[in-house]
Write a structure and sequence with these properties.
alpha+beta; 2 domains; 10 strands; 38% helix; DNA-binding
Length: 198
DNA sequence: TCATTAAAGTTAT
DNA sequence: ATAACTTTAATGA
């Protein structure tokens, strides 16, 4: 969790509820709130001209959404969409910035949060340029696994659908499936009724 | 080699 | 039930 729940509520944050596929914000809007997930999952995405979806980030409980836009005078370059029922704490930009000014510890946590997302972006930016689909998927899965507690081989279940992995890497689903099968053949991962163990 | 299209099977809502 | 996801196969850049 980036900011303590109580602190946020004391600062004036309220809980908003969202249903699956509901937009939290959309591309082009200006950022007026700080959002932090209490429960549920959220994706940040874009669509290209042909309608193909690209997923920027997948977020879960404790993560904040689009916080970097609160520090620059720009509109959102992507959408934030609830993947399931979500409870999200929201605090106005003004109150959020005031909270940071008077609380260095929270400010530090915010830096950590933004840096973590930047780290992911840096890894993926390089990844997207690499040609090989297996390398792209390996990089993505290594990153996901780095959050898992257990380090044993084939114990971490990738919490993504193949469709999501395709949208995260810019590959098409069919290529993801073929690449994963190849990796399974090469003993890089295990599969258990569709679930990927890495 | 990978994307695209199509078609069919499977899972989740 | 219906939509979303998975898989296989054929074709083309």
């Amino acid at each position: 969790m980036v900011i303590n729940h109580k602190i946020l509520e004391n600062a004036g944050a309220i809980i908003k509820n969202y249903i699956a596929s509901e937009n939290i914000f959309t591309e082009g809007e200006s950022a007026n709130y700080y959002f932090q997930i209490v429960s549920g999952n959220v994706k940040m995405n874009n669509y290209d001209e042909s309608g193909k979806e690209s997923i920027q980030h997948l977020l879960e409980k404790g993560d904040c959404i689009g916080e970097s836009l609160l520090f620059v005078d720009r509109s959102y370059p992507m959408n934030a969409v609830a993947l399931n029922s979500c409870e999200i704490l929201s605090l106005t930009k003004e109150k959020f910035l005031a909270l940071l000014k008077e609380n260095p510890k929270i400010c530090f946590e915010m830096n950590k949060s933004i840096s973590e997302k930047l780290y992911y972006k840096q890894i993926m930016a390089q990844n997207m340029c690499t040609q090989s689909p297996t390398v792209k998927l390996k990089t993505l899965m290594d990153y996901m696994k780095s959050f898992g507690c257990v380090e044993k081989r084939f114990t971490f279940q990738i919490p993504l659908t193949r469709q999501q992995m395709a949208n995260l890497t810019g590959l098409c689903v069919e290529t993801v499936i073929r690449a994963l099968k190849k990796m399974e053949r090469d003993g890089k991962l295990l599969t258990e009724n569709g679930k990927i163990l890495y």
